[in-house]
Amino acid sequence: MTRIAVLGAGKIGEALLAGLLAAGRPASDLAFSERHPERSAELTERLGVASAGVEEAAAGADVVVVAVKPQDIAPVLAELKGALRPGTLVISLCAGLPTALFEGGLPDGTPVVRVMPNTPMLVGEAMSAVSGGAHATAEHLQVAQDMLAAVGRVVSVPEAQQDAVTALSGSGPAYFFYLVEAMIDAGILLGLPRAVAADLIVQSAYGAAVMLRESGDHPVLLREAVTSPAGTTIAAIRELERHGVRAALIDAIEAARDRSVELGRTVQQR
Predict the structure, then answer these.
(1) Which residues define the annotated binding site for NADP(+)?
(2) How confident is the model at residue 266 (pLDDT cuts 50, 70, 90)?
């Protein structure tokens, strides 16, 4: 059995561990490292997965998943360099960090796969994109895809597209939460109790997402099906267009892409 070590047990690291366990992976095949002792003890008690230091966890693993904050990567790479066994696959969940950064800080020939997941991993509905580094084979990519399939859907993209993926789906849930927050506030403004407004919008968002995924129809067609001539929906759409909501959203996603690029460059220059 492949042994997996997750370095960094924040929300994403914990979600991955929980998803692997739910998919049938035995706890004995998993390990994690976490710098906060209280957090380590809590996760071990709750998930039954052993915690260890970075070097110990990595030394016993066939796959090492790095799920730390990008700004914390330097000390982790320093510890990993002397602990990795030849051929160990390293999977990075660090936003903005290119595979070349890992390859430059780890033993020569280390296979690295870059992944951009998102927070719906916490409920088993992640959207993850994978890209292979210079030494990653199709088999390495398949290992990463199989692992991430336990917590959602997976696509493979060229690494040059990863900053765009980060902006679109990595940060994407926040855009939906922001929109839902605004719609709930609108419901309150119109006289609805907050709890009722929240129920109405959350279920509408869930139903719309299911329609998008299950119908296969273009979103324009689905929107037009709701938009009657001279009706309420077209009046609302006109206001959204008048306020430039579409253009603002495109600009926002472009800004997120630019920040992802900047983050990678900043870490590499340290």
Answers:
(1) 67-70
(2) confident
